[in-house]
Amino acid sequence: MSPLLRHAGIALFVSLLTVATLGPTAGSAQSAGVARQVPQSRAEIALSFAPVVERAAPSVVNIYSRRVVRERQMPRLFDDPFFRRFFGHPFGTVPHQRERVQNSLGSGVIVRENGVILTNRHVIEGADEITVVLHDRREYDAQLVGTDERSDLAVLRIDTGDEALPALPLGDSEALAVGDLVLAIGNPFGVGQTVTMGIVSALARTTVGITDYRSFIQTDAAINPGNSGGALVDMQGRLVGINTAIYSQDGGSVGIGFAVPATMARVVVDSLLSGGTVTRPWLGLDGQTVTNDIARSLGLPRPTGVLVSDVRPGGPAQRAGVRRGDVILAFDGHDLTDEEALRYRIGTSPVGGSAALRIWRDGREREVAVALRPPPEDPPRNPTRLRGRHPLNDVVVANLNPALAEELRLPHGPGSVVILEIGDNSPARRFGLQPGDVMVSVNAREATSVEVLNRLMSRTGPPWRLEMLRDGRRARVVVGG
Q: Which residues are catalytic, by number?
């Protein structure tokens, strides 16, 4: 069986890691000027993590979510208009539905004294009711402040009146080093709060396809269902990550766990509390990871960085002087190993101000400053449900502007239209179209906007020769030919 990435709390296992200061001279990367040391004696090895747990554990909560699922009691065949035309509904005028309740378990971390809680989005996704249980077993109904699908994080709030709750401060995950001890705290299997210890096995893991921003803290802590959203804590009792998933072949822990860094969590919390949405900077460029072959062709000493494959006219990157063919080696002093590392650095930067890019061009390095601006809503999205006697009837489309392209993780090409939704009875389903497909042309005429696409579908064909982009590849569909 091939290895799987599983979210703890649903099908993912997340464990609890332990962090402690080993001896009076040992410190973590956060303590400037203090050298790291291995334990020097049996007494140092016997030191307890209890002070760290005592400080951090009261801030970790249990989260129970509940949603009602409505299930049909008859085959979908009975919903077919052709079938109903001749037979009606065989079991009455309205199909009978049965309701059942789905419950899920997860963990969360109090990050503000006024009841603000951080957890994983998949812990509360689709929930009708969310209950938070504090360390002292008090229960509160929670309000969902907002979610960020791209980082798999969510922010909740509970009302405890004027009482100040024990909040866990967000630490600096950038200061972690491989080998640091960490604690993972959560509620696996619903047995109650537990703590486990591990070390930081790797930083900035970008090959893990759990979220859009793939830069995870990897630990060797045991992770189990119910730990998703729990705390990864450093030696000073600071929150350095949110436990999210493990690498597993059979659902059990094999000592490879992943946590969303606190650097990303801070951006999400601040954004959701201030505006209800998470807005990240947009540079207006596309790129690819530099391979060995690319490095050799460009004279780079080793394969590193991101090769710029496209620069959007008028975007921040073009205004800063970035060109197609440049290699971005570093973002604000952080070396870039691949495209995902650049995406993470952009995603954890605040909108406004600027960032320094170190680039490779014509065999030498140079530095440029690029403005950190939000992606523009130009042209307006104009979401429209198309109607008519054509293959795109009952399909919702929108203009693919930079802001929408960022949300959908699609190329920023100008003058294109993207499919957002396909109705259950739309002919587009039968012909293999999917949400996320970018419509390029109809009968060799460019679909530059929603209005143009609507006009082309209504006034041309049959046949309709549709050309689209899917996963970066062109596809063609002929309908009615």
A: 122, 152, 228
